[in-house]
Amino acid sequence: MSISDAPLILVINPGSTSCRYALFAGNRPLAEEEFAAEATVEGVAAVGRRFLAARGPQVADLAAIVARGGLLRPVAGGVYTVTEALVQDCLAHRYGRHASNLGAPAARRLAEEAHVPAFIADPPTVDELLEEARLTGLPEIRRRSIFHALNQRAVAADLADRLGKTYAQARVIVVHLGGGVSIGAHCNGRVVDVNDALEGDGPFASNRAGGLPALPLVRWAQGKSFDEVVHAVCKAGGFWAHLGTADGREIERRVNQGDPQATAVFEAFTYQVAKAVAALAVPLDGQVEAIALTGGLAHWSRLVERLKQRLGWLAEVYIYAGGREMEALAAAALSVLRREQEAKQY
Question: Does the chain have fewer CB atoms within 10 Å around its N or its C terminus?
């Protein structure tokens, strides 16, 4: 199938618990399926081959392959060609360990079989922060940009369009509500401030502790191993630590039944999210044109309504439940194939 006639694009999105695959003809989705997470590059590639074979096309029929980017060095937003240097940084977990590191190497392996390009777009380490957003009270510790960049930027671009603007013209705040929570200030095409959603910054989340008072954290960590602290902060904090579950449906059931502990944690969560959103009016000079709620927890109706109540004074709140990652990845690859933009080199 030629590039000018709806090129076939395979999208690969590895996560910690599952891996999603999608097939697009141009910007039109043909199929999507979620599989159990794979632990190796070959495993991710092999499932991709099976996904295609079950639908007729083979790897050789593809025009491009695009994957969710892994933890890389800080980069500007955009589309990147999967190069050897990029693959090696993913395989070596040079900038952090995450399941998404398998995406680019698997995409390149399949792309070499098909003799087509492989891309990533807007990896989690997109870094466009204002310099004043990086500085902390200790020179040795600087804030960094690790967040749900792919979904955030896709949602912000769509929200800008709804406002009658381009992404480069809009000033909006996007709240990704998932296993981690990232809240980004999007100013004229750049994410100028955002919390580190991976290593303990911003509101607590489903299983992440979020920002914690420094000295109480140090005291609590005494006698614990580094791995124990990382597990508590990044995997066993938040809703899980307080309620023994990270399932939004179960928490909503408890809140609806009047469970006082669940209600208290729910209210604290919405308060922390709303407070973090309001703080990002500062990098936007107070000109917040709209707020978007996205991610898996944006399906939680009670949560959405409570956040609307807390944030309605600041700007209109729009809902993008789930995510736009698969569509955003396909659109990124298509824009390069159609020469609407040039892929960047890592």
Answer: N
Architecture of domain 8-125+325-337: 2-Layer Sandwich (3.30)
CA dist., res. 141 & res. 172, Å (int): 28
Helix (H) or strand (E) holding 317: strand 317-321
Thinking of the domain 131-315, which architecture would CATH place it in? 2-Layer Sandwich (3.30)
Q: Are 44 and 19 in contact (CB under 8 A)?
A: yes
Per-residue pLDDT of the chain (346 residues; tens, 9 = 90+): 444 479 999 999 998 778 999 999 999 999 999 999 999 999 999 999 999 999 999 999 999 999 999 999 999 999 999 999 999 999 999 998 889 999 999 999 999 999 999 999 999 999 999 999 999 999 999 999 999 999 999 999 999 999 999 999 999 999 999 888 999 999 999 999 999 988 889 999 999 999 999 999 999 999 999 999 999 999 999 999 999 999 888 999 999 999 999 999 999 999 999 999 999 999 999 999 999 999 999 999 999 999 999 999 999 999 999 989 999 999 999 999 999 999 999 9
Taking the CA atoms of 139, 141, 143 and 145 in sequence, report the sign of the dihedral they define: positive
137, 144 Cβ separation under 8 angstroms: no
Alpha carbon distance 141, 249 (integer Å): 37
- By C-alpha distance, which of 267, 341, 280 is closest to 307? 267
Q: Is 8 left (phi over 0), alpha (psi -120 to 50) or beta?
A: beta
d(CA 104, CA 333): 13
Within 8 A by CB and 6+ apart from 158, the residues are 320, 324
Q: What are 177's two structure tokens? A: 């509500």
CA–CA distance, 292 with 294 (Å, rounded to integer): 6
Answer yes or no: same fold for 8-125+325-337 and 131-315: yes
